[in-house]
Amino acid sequence: MLSRVDRILAARRRLASFADAGAMSRAIGVAYNGGVPAVAAALAALAFLSVAAAPVAAAQATAAPAGDGASPPLVDVTALVPDAVLDLRYATASNVTGRALYPAARCLLLRPVAERLAAVARRLRAAGYRLLLWDCYRPASAHALLWAAHPRAGAVADPARGSHHSRGTAVDVSLADLSGAPLGMPTDHDAFGPRARAEATEGVPEEARLRRDRLRAAMEAEGFVAYAREWWHFAARDSSRHAIRDEALR
Question: How do residues 110-169 score in pLDDT, each as one tens digit?
Fold first, then answer.
């Protein structure tokens, strides 16, 4: 059986011969599952930057790369929504991977998307709610690690297509009361069962369903699109025209 070091070195050698995003993700997974997430993150970043990984190539085929003026800058959502409750799961071990994927707990979005979310917050604040944010911008290398740990299409976007989170145009969001206490919703974050669906009714308490539907109505009123499989996930309508990013969270 190969040692952890041997597995990581083998993954690194494979970086030079990636043929597709799946190969990239599997190699990253070797390091990740070997118990050295920092090395896995380095491999993911190397793949993203120097091997023309498929997620980036696919995005750049239809959208200009970030930084050329085509995509707005990323901004901190708390500057526009100062009462947002942050529970950024991928900055902690409380997520499907069991490990922190982000070095900092910050919610960043493209400025127009953050402004739309601020409008959502105003709508919901008037009804007695605050936004509870679970995930915002996700660097592409962090997304590759997420896929390596949980490679389930539909639950996690295939790196071959890229995630709208990595474009800075998607947010995972729930509701809190005005004191900041989380409210009961159909499921917790990244619960992949049938109750997670955006229109699920079976097994969903009425109060949780009503809150979920109120959240969705407010998000859609400000130009966000719901995801059928996850009641908490919303993306800007124009997400696909923006480039995949891999700017580090600091």
Answer: 999 999 999 999 999 999 999 999 999 999 999 999 999 989 888 899 988 899 999 999
Q: What domains are there in the chain, each with its CATH number?
A: 69-241 (3.30.1380.10)
Angle (CA) 141 145 148, round 5°? 135
The count of C-alpha atoms lying within 13 angstroms of the C-alpha of 32, restricted to the half-sphere facing its C-beta, is: 25
Question: pTM for this structure?
Answer: 0.75
Contact call for residues 53 and 21 (beta carbons, < 8 A): yes
* Rounded-to-integer distance, Cα 66 and Cα 244, Å: 7
Q: In what order do the strands lie in the sheet with 230-236?
A: 85-86, 129-135, 170-177, 230-236, 224-227
Q: Which of 199, 206, 207, 230 is catalytic?
A: 230
Contact (CB, 8 A) for 232 and 172: yes
Beta bridge partners of 171: 234
CA distance 241 to 110: 12
How far, in Å, CA of 40 to CA of 198, rounded? 33
230 assigned to active site? yes
Q: How far apart are CA 27 and CA 151, in angstroms?
A: 13
* Residue 52 CB neighbour total at 10 angstroms: 11
CA 29-55-220 angle, 5° bins: 105
